Amino acid sequence: MATSPEARLKELNITLPPPGRPMAKYKMAVRVGNMLYVSGHGPGKGTDAPVSGKCGQDLSTEQGKASARAVGLNILATVRDQLGSLDRVVRLVKTLGMVNCTPDFTEHPQVINGYSELMAEVFGEDAGVGARSAVGFPVLPGNIAVEIEAIFEVE
Question: CA 73 to CA 67: how far, in whole Å?
Fold first, then answer.
């Protein structure tokens, strides 16, 4: 990638939200060696994206996708908070995307693409695209629309 992740944020005119804080007894992220394990994040308030609701009932696939992108912004804020700079990320390794949805909803991958496309924009097509699972759940904490956890290789 020609430009650094921090420079890409500026080019894309993306301002990250303040990093989140744990809502229960856990850490937002844990670094072990050169791996950063990021806890499940939801979409933050103060965004245009839907924070809560069930895909296939309250939200369309596109609204779910917008929510997943908002989750991605929150994850980036946590990663920057933990490392001091997104430029210390070597690559995204693994993502688990959880979609709050009805039993007949089948577009989980398209919803989680909101997050995955953001990671590719910030880190590049190679370093920003990792292994991924996108699955549906009948309910998520606080009825949030999407929850995502991730693993990054870091310097």
Answer: 10
